[in-house]
Amino acid sequence: MSLTTSTPAGPARAGEGTRSAQPGPLLQVSGVTLEYATPSHVVRATHQVSFDVHAADRYVLLGPSGCGKSTLLKAIAGFIAPTEGEMRLDGQRIHQPGPDRVVVFQEFDQLAPWKTVLQNVTFALLASRRMGKAEATERALHYLDKVGLARFVNAYPHTLSGGMKQRVAIARALAMQPRILLMDEPFAALDALTRRKMQEELLQLWDEVRFTLVFITHSIEEAMVVGNRILLLSPHPGRVRAEINSHQFDLHGGGGAQFQRTARRIHQLLFDEQHPQPGDEAEQNNVFWLRPNADGYFNISV
Ligand SMILES: Nc1ncnc2c1ncn2[C@@H]1O[C@H](COP(=O)(O)OP(=O)(O)OP(=O)(O)O)[C@@H](O)[C@H]1O
């Protein structure tokens, strides 16, 4: 599928948030429990988590360390099967990895060090056997240009900065034109200035390409800036606490009163014992709680 297809999420960030005119979700996560079996016991990473991701969403999973964010991403990627519940992409049950879901990780060593920047990107395209070398090269150059690395196509990874390596990983992922781009704390290992620049670039890229993004972060501020919706997960094992609309925030709103209020509210929700009740305030802050569903937890909002 082309990433340049127009999407139902609306043309501008400021205009997002209306769900009524949209078709069904691209990704449906329904009551998903994820566990690891160790030799001595079973570790439950998430408990009955549900959420929907629509085409062109920038959907953020936010929660404390150990709440199962990475495990959820691995399950969406098809590496882990739920012990309860199911995940569907375009209505099809996810049961294995596929080129329709590509992951960008935090680590800088996700590139093959013996390949040039260009070869790193074309390799994934050629391995998927979807195109020949000429087309793969053309597409790789297109996305490397989009992430500002046109001058570095013949460089080797060890000659690049951390931010540049992440740009290569993002270009490689986008070149695959996945249905969903999965990012697991992609900027966490970068210094603060580079991280901010990468957030800005990611949003610019999204403006151009309108890919669908599922993005993991520990940072409340990063979640608010990158995401149009944020799923808040409780501490281990991760359960859904709330879902928040954050499309109204951008990189320039960090110092604003509304941004700060919402950040504080998210912090309370993540770390306070007292959970919100249906009908609580917060609507003034454009934070919308969901009513508990039949299972008693806060499910999908908006
Ligand atoms: N391979 C594994 N075997 C056993 N337990 C695991 C394994 N991987 C993760 N876990 C456990 O599952 C839980 C969720 O881990 P996960 O890495 O998904 O959390 P996270 O929210 O991504 O954390 P962080 O933000 O620190 O990366 C944790 O309790 C973790 O210890």
From TrEMBL:
Picking any one GO molecular function of the record gives: ATP hydrolysis activity
Keyword Membrane annotated: yes
| Organism field | Corticibacter populi
Q: What InterPro entries would the database entry show?
A: AAA+_ATPase, ABC_transporter-like_ATP-bd, ABC_transporter-like_CS, ABC_transporter_ATP-bind, P-loop_NTPase
Q: Where is the ABC transporter domain?
A: 27-260
Q: Which domain of life is it from?
A: Bacteria
Q: What is this protein called?
A: ABC transporter ATP-binding protein
Q: Which family does it belong to?
A: Belongs to the ABC transporter superfamily.
Location of region: Disordered? 1-24
Protein keywords: ATP-binding, Cell membrane, Membrane, Nucleotide-binding, Transport
